Amino acid sequence: MREVVDKKMNKLMNESGFNIARNLKILRKERNVTQKEVARHLNIDVTTLSHYETGIRMPDIDTLIALAKYYDTDINRIISNNFD
Fold it and tell me: Ranges for the HTH cro/C1-type domain (predicted)?
């Protein structure tokens, strides 16, 4: 079931043109932390985080939730085309 949800979410994000990669990078730079620090906190590989920030991969819903909590924001800000 989770794989189906993740695939649908990835398809929606890609089709809708959400710029998750750009938004994640902006959030990280606003917080003035390295990819290594974020990856360590989320218990993911730094390469995985790098792939999220470059758009090579899209985070699953659990990772989006964890990223939103880490950056003290909501998922809408991460997936929004209109990042403010």
Answer: 24-78
Q: How many other C-beta atoms are found inside a 10 Å radius of the C-beta of residue 20?
A: 22
Kindly give, in sequence order, each residue whose CB lies less than 8 Å from that of residue 28, ignoring residues fewer than 6 positions away.
34, 35, 38, 53, 71
Helix (H), strand (E), coil (C) string for the chain: CHHHHHHHHHHHHHHHCCCHHHHHHHHHHHHCCCHHHHHHHHCCCHHHHHHHHHCCCCCCHHHHHHHHHHCCCCHHHHHCCCCC
User: Rounded distance, CA 39 to CA 34, Å?
Assistant: 9
Q: Which domains are present in the chain?
A: 1-79 (1.10.260.40)
Give tens-digit pLDDT for 8-39.
666 665 554 458 999 999 999 999 999 999 99
